[in-house]
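FORM 7B: Structural annotation worksheet

SECTION A. Query
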Amino acid sequence: MSINKEIKRITTETIRNMKGKEKISMLTSYDFTIAQMVDAGGVDAILVGDSASNVMAGHETTLPITLDQMIYHAQSVVRGVSKALVVVDLPFGCYQSDPQRALDSAIRIMKESGAHAVKLEGGIEIEKSVKRIVKAGIPVMGHLGLTPQSIYQFGTYKVRAKEEAEAEKLIEDAKFLEEAGAFSVVMEKIPAALAKKVTESISIPTIGIGAGPHCDGQVLVVHDMLGMTHEFSPKFLRRYLNLYDEITSAVQNYVKDVKSVDFPNENEQY
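SECTION B. Predicted structure
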């Protein structure tokens, strides 16, 4: 009988210890099949992002997605992952106003999906929620800079923290998240120089998206990185494939073969 080698799973402690030693790679996933491939590709962490609201459901913002829907996506991802750390976004409305609701939402995600951590957007304004969740033993990843759940407050997806006051608040928020027990913090769409300053001022890892090369790691939406989306082209995005055109072409060839009765052929029937 063959014995499978035990796969060493990446934990929040692994991520913490990578700071200053090895860059952290992170991608989003929302379903079993993509999660399997992303995990096999060797990423350190997978984010089950509320960006599922955009790329999976077609909404304009991340706001409509519900806690039940996030748990469904997280369950699907966890089933496909054997090594990467799985972090799940707490969706809009589940933690901002009530620390107890925040904890209840985080507990549901952890118990029902089997994920390893949750992510919350914001700094000092969500202090009670962060501390309540961490105190319960649930790892928290922070998210600063452009926080998509606050898009209607910002009114734009442009770069954040260009002005000195907002930059100083971001630094303070990062330090708060560290003190509150967060194991890492995502920084989205902020100047590279500010991201460098934050990264050097806290002991927990920073993970950037549109925040330059000085962060301790990087994260991208997998649909964007693989070129499955084709209209979204921010400056920070590098496409490693162009699956939109390749899949569209494959479908066109399938349709043509069906119409011409080329598919199925003699070798493709019983």
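SECTION C. Observations
Residues 54 and 60 are 6 Å apart (CA to CA). Residues 242-270 form one domain.

SECTION D. Sign-off
Analyst initials: ____
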